[in-house]
Amino acid sequence: MNSRDRDRDPYEKIFPAAPAPSRGFARTWWGHAWLRALEDSALDGTQVKHGRRYARSGAVGAVSVRPGGLTAVVRDPDGTAHRTDVLVQEFTEAEWDRLLDLAVAEAGYIAALLDREVPPELAEDAAAAGVDLLPGIGDLDPRCDCGEWDHCPHTAALCYQMARLLDQDPFVLLLLRGRGERELVAELAERSTAAAGAEAESDTGTDADTDPDPEAPRAPADEGVPAAEVFATARIRPAALPPLPGLPQAPGQPPTLDTEVDPEPHLDVDAVEFLAQAAAAEAHRRLAEALAPGHADRPQAASLTLAEDAVRLTVEAGDFRVRSRLAAAIGRSRADMELAVRAWGFGAAPGLAALEDDWTPDRTTLARARAALAAAFADGEAPVLRRVRARWTEAGTGRQLRLGREGRWWPYRREAGRWIPSGPSAPDPGSALEADPAP
Description:
By secondary structure, the protein is an alpha+beta fold. The chain is built from 15 helices and ten strands. The strands form two sheets. The chain has a five-stranded antiparallel sheet with strand order 1-2-3-4-5. Strands 6-7-8-9-10 form a five-stranded antiparallel sheet. Strand 2 and strand 3 form a beta hairpin. Helix 2 crosses helix 6 and helix 11 crosses helix 13.
């Protein structure tokens, strides 16, 4: 019998209005996942922020949770009441069967659920079986009599309040999906008993109705085969690896930390949000590289130093305060950091090294450099270049070539008394100078 055909009254739960939280609305990973579904689905982030304020001010009344949706009256600051609903897709009978079978297969899953915990492994196994236990982008369908077709402050406030309820009792999420707690516990117990009986029957090797002869001789227990012997004879072959995951279209969006609660001392919320977003972007970039053809044949890039990583992050930072903090963390002035950011933009870590690494080539490297310079200008008049260590400065033009340790040439230009990067590197000195013609 489908859950839609059941008498729903026993499956509705009413939660009284709750006081304003002293901290964030979600503490558990599944509560945060619920809020991510809201924040990723809403087209207008301002409405979401207004909704968070509504929820914090106590504007959400009693919340009714039932299969397929939740309802509450949410009041505007002027006292105007709005009937607000958020709908969630119920599971089909087939989806419930898959989810319950997964829960029974691992004893720890049932114990965790009864302890008001949602094991992340259960959610992952369910998703792999085609059952999305937690809502994703677009799964929260808002309905409000204020007239908004997308999430409004009222539906957002209801979702924030729901995150608190989910923190306290994950069975509320399962109720939204179509089953009440008592029914679920009974079904889990029934399936667990059936699974235990089937396992016991399999262990005895007899049918349930067969009464073995106690006097019959018993076969000796199978002691198995040593693992070393199995691997030596290649009797076990590893299963084929699963296909590689697809690359998401864009990096994930970390949850907002704008909870309107005063942060802990010395905690810069904007900086933490920036670092979380930067980490997501870097993870997406690395996954793209790992999935690209020929990745296994390419040499791995060296790990960045603290100073290099600070410059990399500054390139991505738009907030002036974050950029200033990154500069201060590695002892750079703002002007020096902007110069480093420019060098990074032309060539990442090697570009930054060309800016700062004033090294002296050995005789072999210097001989190759001179040969490259001679070949670059063999067909025309060669510029007058004065060398100091690995830097060749063209007389009277304010241009300079720098040889990187990796063997590439980097163009520089003199401006306001400083040498600044003026372009990307080139494999030969002639190409580097052509990329930055003399003024």
